[in-house]
Amino acid sequence: MKLSSKRIFSIIxxxxxxxxxxxxxxxxxxxxxxxxxxxxVMKKTVSEVLADIGAxxxxxxxxxxxxxxxxxxxxxxxxxxGFKAEKRLELWAETDASWTRIRSYxxxxxxxxxxxxxxEGDHQVPEGIYRLxxxxxNSRFHLSMxxxxxxxxxxxxxxxxxxxxxxxxxxxxxxxxxxxxxxxxDEAIEELFVLVATIGMDxxxxxxxxxxxxxxxxxxxxxxxxxxALYADIFFRFPFSMISFQ
Length: 246
Known about the structure:
With 246 residues, the protein is an alpha+beta fold.
């Protein structure tokens, strides 16, 4: 049977469109699964993230530890020092009771001004001595690490001032956008995420300060009466007290 040119064109068009669909489906099958399957099916674990990016992140970090003459991963403790004014997050490691600065990361986005976080919606980055609550391998901002704000100190001050609704969900995370959190970009969060997952969250202290030189913080403006004591506590907490003199 002789096919008309119109029918031949229709057949070619059909198989062409079918081929395009197969190609698209193959390259977007994960996205389709995210639509059709529950979120829990697609969520990654910390172990899976380490398997995916651990080697590359460690490879990037290793030269920094070698230059600082510190074993990688460090055998003892880590400190993450965040300076709001300078928009910088520093990584420090402790070995043999000595603290060494490993490297610093630019904070690509953070909201607020000098002063502690007081309530939900004030867009402030907290100030104080914190620890990490958990690692989130499924963050909307690539990866993230939650800071335990409000901590016991924050809650005590709030109770004395009868403040409620202190807010929370404060993270160090990837990407370059943030409200009340610290956005440090994807490569930086990969390095810290892998390092913290390897050494353990219980060995990490997070110190968030208004600026690097705590001796010159301007507290002349009206502040909460407990803020000077908080800043003194931050300043005398190692390794922070070493920094202002370097």
